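Reader question, answered in our methods column.
A reader sent in the components of a multi-part assembly and asked whether the whole thing could be modeled at once rather than chain by chain. We filled in our standard form and ran it. Here is what they sent:
COMPLEX SIZE: two components
ENTRIES:
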Amino acid sequence: MQARADSRKPEEGVPQLVDGWESQGLRLTPSEGFLLSRIDGATSWASLRQIAGMPPDEVDACLARWIAQGIVALGDAPPAGDGADAAPAADALDPSLDLSPELQRRILDFESRLDRAYHELLGVATDADARTIKRAFFALSKEFHPDRYFRRNVGSFGPRLERIFKRVALAYEMLSDPATRAEVERLPQGAAPAAEAAPPAAKAVPGARGGAAKAGPAEAAGRAPRRAAAAGAPAARARTRKRETLDRLRRHFRIPEAVLTERRFRAGRLRDAAHQELGRRHFAEAASAMRLAIAFDPWNDAYKDEFAAVQAELHQQRATDLLSGEGAPASGSDTLRQIEEALHFRPSDARLHHRAAELALEQGEVERAHEYAERACELAEDVAVHFSTLGRVLRRMGEGTRARQAFERAQGLDPGDPDAARELDRLRRQRPARTRGGGMR
Amino acid sequence: MSRVIGIDLGTTNSCVAVIDGGKPVVIPNAGGYKTTPSMFAISQDGKRLVGHLAKRQAITNARNTVFASKRLIGRRFDEDEVQRSLELSPFEIVRGANDDPRIVIGGRSFTCPEIAAIVLREMKHIAEEYLGEPVTDAVITVPAHFNDTQRQCTKDAGRIAGIEVLRIINEPTAAALAYGIGKGVEEKIAVYDLGGGTFDISIVELGEGVIEVLATTGDTFLGGEDFDRRIVDHVLEEFRSREGIDLREDPMALQRLKDAAEKAKCDLSTLQTTEINLPFIANDANGPRHLNATIDRELLEALTGEIVDRTMKCVDRCLGDAGLRPDQIDHVVLVGGQSRMPLVQQAVARFFGKRPHRGVNPDEVVAVGACIQGSVLVSEDRNLLLLDVTPMSLGIATFDGGFAPLIPRNTTAPCMKSHTFTTTRDDQTAVKIRVLQGEAERAEGNHLLGEFVLSNLPPARKGEPEIEVSFDIDANGIVSVAARDLATGGEQSITVSATGTLSEEEIEALAREHAGYDLPQEK
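And here is the structure of the entire assembly that came back:
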């Protein structure tokens, strides 16, 4: 929290990307990459929190970090009601109504942002479960359903409440059915359909517009054998209808060409950056840049192929680094995670398995250690240290007999193996103690 | 502000409730009964009788006593339901000026909203007597499957009775509201409502002060009276084969038998066997005849098992609409007198795999729910919200005679949906938008709510113009439909739902007329 942080709260600002950020060699997790790709200079900090799909405090931490790194700058919030719509200015408030000024402001504000993505409209994360979505819908219903203000003097706010409720109900309808929700989530969310959005005063709700399957209205002579949109059982029909709403939505959420060009351009720059990093054999940075390129331009399949290739290279390299002890991360659990990732790409690397077993044992993950140790022994049957590791794992599991067999095997392969000699000695001394009962530990 | 009453305007009985001292109270009528027969009669000496007074003389004055008129309200004369009522009603039903069924008793013709208004006025009086203050506002319940015309007619009836109808809500929804009030838990409830004349099923979800109707459906012509009718038919047939006399020709005998059958049916909910004894039911050259029939529970279940199966099919469909399995329902609530039948309870328990709840007063919960909704709407403390749904799909007719629903049934209201259509001929300059309500796949199987024409389309090849049709249901249930040519912005729209079977003038006139009937009753 520094850079341009001033008296104003950060969440009131609008993060934007600083030019040239692409070549900074960022290492980002997939969800961080998603967050970064949503920064477009129009989506506010508060909205980013809602759409990022990660906990709000993590969003705050990421944004703060990027601001500190000079990747992101904080701009001013655009005036509420953005541009074309009449801003909910003070003169829209009417003190003679049975609605408090705060409530009037809340209604005007909410109405001015009705064309937000459905998740945002309901104020839930993209991965929110069904229950959370329902609760959000119920809470908004209690706030905006016209029945709440029955027979109250609400003036021009009556139609506003209705518009809000209808939109909120539509959002809930789409998100509460797993089938439609899956489709909605594939849409490029958060892309404000500024060009197409009708001002709230217009009667058409944006989003429920555009042509889908066409059915010819009545009266016309039926020459063209076009089928009416609706057919089949009522449930199937309802589904068809939802599908058509989705089609319309897809059109609605068509990102304006200018924005799309901008995104493609950025994706291209990121890919260039990735290639540069590859040249320097900085695979992690290259993979991160490619992942971002995909987040900016998810329609380009070539990026996905390149990403997969970089990813494979990265893990090869990582495996090599890890085994040579180079660039080992600070904590054992991180290393273990990286080795496990690398194992996907080198599934028959005995040394890697052995290292994984050692690390897992250090972490107290005995089961996993056992799996890796056994696999290491299978892959390379002539390496003493693989068996002595297996022996230590088995001893930790309380499998005394099998542990001793493993150590004996290790000693057979390499009589000088220090682990095996020491452990076998220890096991021999333990045995009398255990037969006397009580045990040492 | 005056208090809002909740009225369950039933096919056979009606009930009124109000929030008094913070609690819902079912108001007894002058006779001490908490339900009042939905009956209206004109006696031999020209007096108007409502409720128990009408029921008491129904046998002796069958031709001039109206019952179950709820089955006729908001329908066209030619509809099957009306024709079926025609067969079985001892009173006369004729075709009215607006193609609506009208009832002729005491030498005067009554529209169905008028009959409903007479019952509503009675319920309003009962509440006013109890509260000692005038009542103007009410929430009235209707079966879940009522279409917009039937709902509007019920609203019109309220206006004729001098009542401002704040809301029309679905009966099973009201029952759920009554059942769910004060429970802070999240749960899903199925309400199985088998009343005198209608069957409804609703699935609702409660949670955090919000009651969301997930799905609701029903059967138009299925209720306790159908059970009675099966018994009546059986006994009639038996009597005819034994005595050679068809009692159908004699309205008075038929009414006696109907009452006896209803009583026998009720008895069989607790007894294994019962008898119908009607002495002097008929006369012929051989002298007076008596009717004696023994009916046991097994026979009743054989006669009516098929009706119960039909209700379970509805239940299955409703669950499907809600996207749930039977085991996902937390509670099953039975409403309506006919749900007392053991066979019904067994069928429901088997389907859901759990014992259904029966409130203490299954005949009263609907009115209680209605008054809760009324109070929630107007009170200061609004801690409860009912999210109701559209009862039937709304859409337009397509060129090939199909029906394209834009707002499927069970959509939370208020709502707004739109869809794009196109032309089917080159250089077509106009399209006709026919607004329909119902679930049939073909346009003609659905109820026509209204129509209009969008003209002045610019010449274009067929399939090219984009005509956006949008349906909007506002908070008061008013449906507006607009069609817009996206090329020119030309637009036509109509408001369709405010059409009952009576015109505005007719309602005004009837309201004035019926207000007059009040005078002699005031003290």
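What stands out: The mean pLDDT of chain A is 73. The longest helix of chain A spans residues 301-324.
Send us your own complexes using the same form.
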